[in-house]
């Protein structure tokens, strides 16, 4: 245990050195004019909707944090809360995770304004909410199906990786993957491990290095999604319902035990390492180097839109 801790301390030092100077306050960084990236806290009450159907045993969790379902702290807490609510209803055995945004975007990943020039008091709580969301979704007793009707980069991909089954719209404009390296950051180890588990070591290695965003066809080929639905076909919801019914036919105890077999170790690993993981994240993301790269990435997103 002590060896493990000292190795991690070494890793933190390494990240700090890579970032050259540790970020202390926003004046250390050149403030850039990014007016569309200014929001931080949002209201908890209208970010997701949970629709439970005791007759079918299926609940549908719809995300609708405009414009892109990016994951602010409140958004992650809302999703976690909805998962727990569905789990507390013993009649519910399956959960479909989907977006109800008109754009179809599944989730744009972590809310970038939480990472760029962050509120230092909020940052650890933000990361803990991300860890908690992973633990709640990946470790859920429910069978979980991601119905992905639009782009799912980075933590948006994590949401789908944490489900048991992934159905995606076959539209080449909708891409999915862990693109963190393109932002000058890396996925945390528990997220990288999910990727490795789902698409295999070599595919994950290349994709993590390059920050690959896969088209739906490519995602199907590497096993990142399980099924595709023709673009514009409204049957993605029906397919998700059908899949949910298929999972429900398996006796719940056996289904939950089978899930525990493949996920238990990773869940226990993060559960026992949350503080250290948070400390590492906070010291990494606040380095000057990472902050500058994030600032440029945000500018690129804003310019691309114009
Ligand atoms: C031991 C521990 C070690 C820890 C070490 C780890 C350290 C760091 C880990 C950090 C992990 C990060 C994971 C992440 O999730 S980072 C976020 C990555 N997300 C992205 O790169 C996605 C960026 N967005 C897009 O590519 C596109 O927006 C889209 C999702 C493909 C949609 O494209 P589309 O053309 O339809 O729409 P727009 O681009 O016009 O976007 C619509 C509006 O949404 C805003 N937006 C988009 N993404 C985000 C985001 N992630 N955060 C905040 N806002 C976002 C965009 O600006 C538009 O806003 P506007 O309409 O107001 O202009």
From TrEMBL:
The record's principal subcellular location, in a coarse class, is mitochondrion
What is its pathway?
A: Lipid metabolism; fatty acid beta-oxidation
Going by the UniProt record, its keywords in alphabetical order are:
Acetylation, Fatty acid metabolism, Isomerase, Lipid metabolism, Mitochondrion, Transit peptide
Q: Which Pfam families match?
A: ECH_1
A single BP term in Gene Ontology: fatty acid beta-oxidation
* Tagged with keyword Repressor: no
Annotated GO MF terms: delta(3)-delta(2)-enoyl-CoA isomerase activity
Residue ranges spanning the membrane: these are none
Report the InterPro entries cross-referenced here. Answer: Enoyl-CoA_hydra/iso
Its biological purpose is as follows: Key enzyme of fatty acid beta-oxidation. Able to isomerize both 3-cis (3Z) and 3-trans (3E) double bonds into the 2-trans (2E) form in a range of enoyl-CoA species, with a preference for (3Z)-enoyl-CoAs over (3E)-enoyl-CoAs. The catalytic efficiency of this enzyme is not affected by the fatty acyl chain length.
Query: Which PANTHER family does the record cross-reference, listed alphabetically?
Result: ENOYL-COA DELTA ISOMERASE 1, MITOCHONDRIAL, ENOYL-COA HYDRATASE-RELATED
Q: What is this protein called?
A: Enoyl-CoA delta isomerase 1, mitochondrial
């Amino acid at each position: 245990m002590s060896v493990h801790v000292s190795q991690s301390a070494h890793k933190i030092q390494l990240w700090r050195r890579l970032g050259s100077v540790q970020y202390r306050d926003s004046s250390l960084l050149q403030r850039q004019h990014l007016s569309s990236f200014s929001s931080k806290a949002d209201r908890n009450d209208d970010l997701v909707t949970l629709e439970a159907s005791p007759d079918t045993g299926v609940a549908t969790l719809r995300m609708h944090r405009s414009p892109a379902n990016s994951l602010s702290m409140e958004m992650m807490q809302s999703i976690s809360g909805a998962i727990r609510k569905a789990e507390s209803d013993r009649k519910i055995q399956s959960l479909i995770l989907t977006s109800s945004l008109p754009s179809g975007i599944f989730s744009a990943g972590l809310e970038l304004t939480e990472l760029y020039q962050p509120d230092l008091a909020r940052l650890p709580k933000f990361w803990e909410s991300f860890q908690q969301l992973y633990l709640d979704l990946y470790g859920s007793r429910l069978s979980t199906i991601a119905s992905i009707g639009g782009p799912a980069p980075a933590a948006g991909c994590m949401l789908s990786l944490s489900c048991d089954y992934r159905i995606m719209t076959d539209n080449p404009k909708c891409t999915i993957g862990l693109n963190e390296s393109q932002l000058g950051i890396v996925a945390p180890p528990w997220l990288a491990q999910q990727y490795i588990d789902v698409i295999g070591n070599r595919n994950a290695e290349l994709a993590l290095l390059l920050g690959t965003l896969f088209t739906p066809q490519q995602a199907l080929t590497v096993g990142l999604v399980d099924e595709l639905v023709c673009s514009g076909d409204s049957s993605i919801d029906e397919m998700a319902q059908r899949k949910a019914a298929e999972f429900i036919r398996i006796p719940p105890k056996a289904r939950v035990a089978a899930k525990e077999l493949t996920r238990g170790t990773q869940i226990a690993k993060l559960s026992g390492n949350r503080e250290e993981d948070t400390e590492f994240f906070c010291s990494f993301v606040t380095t000057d180097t990472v902050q500058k790269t994030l600032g440029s990435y945000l500018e690129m997103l804003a310019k691309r839109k114009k």
